[in-house]
Every structure is written in C-alpha cells, then in structure tokens.
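Today's session is about reading a structure prediction critically. Students often jump straight to the picture, but the first step is always the sequence itself: look for stretches that repeat, for charged clusters, for runs of hydrophobic residues. Only then move on to the predicted structure, which in these notes is written as discrete structure tokens rather than atom positions. Here is the chain we will use throughout the hour.
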Amino acid sequence: MPDYFPLKENTRYEYKFTSTEFDGTARVFIDILSVAKKAAKTVAQARMIFELRDSHTTEYAITRDAKWLTTADGVIIGGRREFPLPVKEGAKWEEYPDTSEVVSLSDKISIKAGKFSGCMKVVTMLAAGDAGKSVRYYAPGVGYVLEEYNGEDKTCELELVAVSKVPEEKKKAKAKTKK
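Below is the predicted structure for this chain, in token form.
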C-alpha cells in the first residue's frame, strides 16, 4: 500500500499559497522535525512557517494510528482528519459540518514540484456542499501536494513546489534562547 503521507524526520515541504484573504502569494514551509513511534501510534512534531510580508511560525503534531492520519493544524483550515487508514477508495467520513470522501487513488496531477500519478484525491463538501468544497491530493511516497479550497468565506490554493531537508540553521534557531 503506498504511503500517502510519509512522516520522515527532517523533511521540509515548501508550498506556494494563494488566498482571497490576502494579496500576493505566500510561501509556506512545513517541516517534519521529529517522528516518534509509540505502541500503535506514530506522532510527528511539525512546524509550519508562513511567509508573506512577515513570517508566522506554529508547531503542531501529526498523528497516525490504526484508523486515521490526523493533523493538529494546517494551512487552509486548522487541524483535521486527513484520511482514514487503511486508505481505500470510497471511504467517507464526517467532521461536522463537513463530509469527506476518498474519490480516487489513481489521479494524475502536474504541478511545479513535478508530475505525480497514483494520487489519492479527497473531496470535502463544506457544510454538505452549501458552503463550497475542497479538493486535495496526496501523492504516494511524497504526501500532501495540492489543495483547491472554494468556500463561502474564502478561495485558496496550496501547491507543493519542493521537498528538501530542514535547513541546519532552522533547526538550531529553535534551540537558541533570548538572553
């Protein structure tokens, strides 16, 4: 079974993010800082750096257990259940007031970061479709690569541009304390 959200320590995902909530294109980095396995659970400590005119950093957890891959925070909306495990086409779930479904495991997408096939496509109907919908893609072995969100309150797009290692100085910056 492909891993649609690999939790690899020291991995940086760089995205470009546009939204009707602001002018211009933001750069968003999601860094997987550490990964710990405990019993039937894997917990990754992640850091999200949002850069537009200034920079905002938040830290949160990503958890994978026998049933779910869950993020405690996110770029477009806060935390959510990304998808149920094991992954299967047609899986549906609800996070009130939204409903989501894995509609495909064979999508092909072409974005700045590359061409991906065998992608999982998740469609979320916001407030049962009354408030819009979100479509997101996860590439096997890569993870979260694209999301197009069309809601009542905002329209946005998040697209992966690169995957790399977390830069050394960024790791050290966390350890420094103000005197």
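Discussion point for the tutorial: Helices lie at 168-175.
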